[in-house]
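tool_call: predict_structure(chain=1)
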Amino acid sequence: MYKIEIDASDAINGLKNMASSIKPNTESVLDSMSDETKDKMSSEAPVASGNLAQSIVVQKEPLWRMIFASLLYGSALERRDNKSQSPPPIEKLQRWAEIKGFADPKRAAFALARTIATKGYKANKFVERTFVWLESTADKWTNMLGTKIVASYSR
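tool_result:
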């Protein structure tokens, strides 16, 4: 006599493997995604001394990542407008002028501080540019996660 046997245990085991792989695979993809995003944000950051780009860090929690510039002036650069504002510290402007090779860094720092106080300066939206880039890569990360989870079915 011929029989048809239907055994779902392999399917159940495969699905269990998939379910158990979701969190570790998601963490792995989040790590790759945040590392790449950190590199992109660092490359988008304005460069004078290079300190801002080097200050980009990734804060990690389970199933969550935050990428940001740890130097406080990073957010000021992102949001500034052309309105008058208080000048940045002269010492920092002088250091910047030295890095840029001004003949008289102290005089350049005072002139720049006066200009910033009266005219302000335009924002440099390096975080916003990074976010737009990240949105454009969403399919890449979704596909990577899906591939990793599906690959765990047969384990």
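agent: The helical segments are 9-44, 51-54, 73-79, 90-100, 105-119, 126-136, 138-151. Proceeding to next step.
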